[in-house]
Amino acid sequence: IFIIEGLATIAYAILAKCFIVDWPETAAFLTAEEKLLLSRRLDEDRGNEFARMDRLDKHSFNRIMKDWKIWAGVKYLATFFVATGTYITQPLVIVWLSNNLGAHYKRAFGTAMQIGFGDISGIIGSFIFIQNEGPGFKTGYGSALGMVLVCGVACTVFHFGVRWENGKRERGERNDRLRLSEAEVQNLGDDHPGFRFSG
């Protein structure tokens, strides 16, 4: 599917070349007066009449590649690593809970609650990234970092909690549940003493 989407993008790019307007200096359909006006507007937009680079040749390419500002801007790459971390851990946490909910109904309800509460973050996120705090966004990033910490603590508690519960079951401390009626024992789900959690 990625090949199909990629080919569609390439096809649109080739077609778009026919419709993209040329630079004012080289646009054949503009009069000399219109070219001058548009060139002035572009200069004003740049903010400096001296900041021109209308030709891409070997020397200008070398200047571009040696500009430290561009390489400092590559820090944007780090945001992709952050997103990668998010998209790797999110399904793992969902599956981890799902594997530890032993019965069908409990698994469906628990997973729905987990994802539902997680999706509230999209609503909260639109309020904690306050425009006048930019570009640092202390409230937004601070809250996000706090939630990462909460997630780390919750995962640690969950890990040691299920190990503790498995230990109790290994020692037979949950076997009193087997004295319930047969119908109740068969409906215990992950509360059954024979069920083991994955930590």
Question: Can you describe what's shown?
Answer:
The structure is a single chain. The protein has helices at about 1-15, 30-45, 60-65, 70-75, 75-100, 105-130, 140-170, 180-185. With about 200 residues, it is an all-alpha fold. The chain folds into two domains: about 1-55, no CATH class; about 75-190, no CATH class. Helix 5 (about 75-100) packs antiparallel against helix 6. The radius of gyration is 30 Å and the shape is elongated. The two termini are about 35 Å apart. The relative contact order is 0.05.
Number of strands: 0
Rounded mean pLDDT is 84
Specify Rg, calculated over alpha carbons: 30 Å
Name the beta content range: under 5%
> Helical amount among residues, as a percent range?
55-70%
Q: What characteristic shape results from the CA principal axes?
A: elongated
Structural class comes to: mainly alpha
- Count of separate structural domains: 2
Order of helices and strands: HHHHHHHH
* Individual helix count: 8
Span from first to last CA?
Answer: 36 Å
Low-confidence segments, given as residue ranges, are none
Biggest sheet, open or closed, and with what strands and sense? none
